[in-house]
Amino acid sequence: MSVKKLAYAFGASLILMSSIFALKAWALDVRDFHGNYSMSHDGWKGNLTLFNSSDPEFRCNPLCGMYTDSGGRNYLVKVSNIQGYKITFYVIGIGDENAEGTGGQKFEGYLMTQTKDAIAGNTWWHSRPFGFYAVKH
Asked: Which structural domain, as residue segments, surrounds residue 65?
């Protein structure tokens, strides 16, 4: 085999391998979001818990959650959408927000695909975007 053909075959193998690793990162499950997180949104600290529940009070689809602010107040979290490693959720009753008629503040973030131990993204308060992150315990 010539050096040129060998280099081509090696390059094709690397491309195939990197594609397989990329697909593995995309192959997330809703359960990858489950857990307790320390959360900061624009410096406001709290704890976020995401879980599944069959309790009709929570109306989980696809997940439920609770947010506890730094003062110990608890808020219901409504998860509206999970697509791959992207999550959209609303903390109901926080910050006098009514994002998209939910009665809550909107958060849109991405789960770290390699470690599945943190979420980072944006939130909005009075139509202004701010950053947030949540690190799993």
From this structure: 30-136
Distance CA 24, CA 29 (A): 11
Q: What CATH number corresponds to the domain at position 61?
A: 2.40.128.20
- Mean pLDDT over each residue of the chain, to the nearest integer: 82
In a domain? residue 14: no
What pTM was computed for the model? 0.77
Q: Is the pLDDT of residue 93 over 50?
A: yes
Q: Does residue 42 lie within any of the structural domains? A: yes
On whether the CB atoms of residues 46 and 105 are closer than 8 A, the answer is no
In a domain, 4, yes or no: no
CB 5 within 8 A of CB 106: no
Has residue 23 got a pLDDT over 50?
Answer: no
Give residue 115's pLDDT. Answer: 95
Residues paired with 47 in a beta bridge: 38, 68
SS3 content of the chain, % helix, strand, coil (to 5): 25, 45, 30
Residue 20 lies in a domain: no
Sign of the dihedral defined by the CA atoms of residues 118, 130, 58, 75, in that order: positive
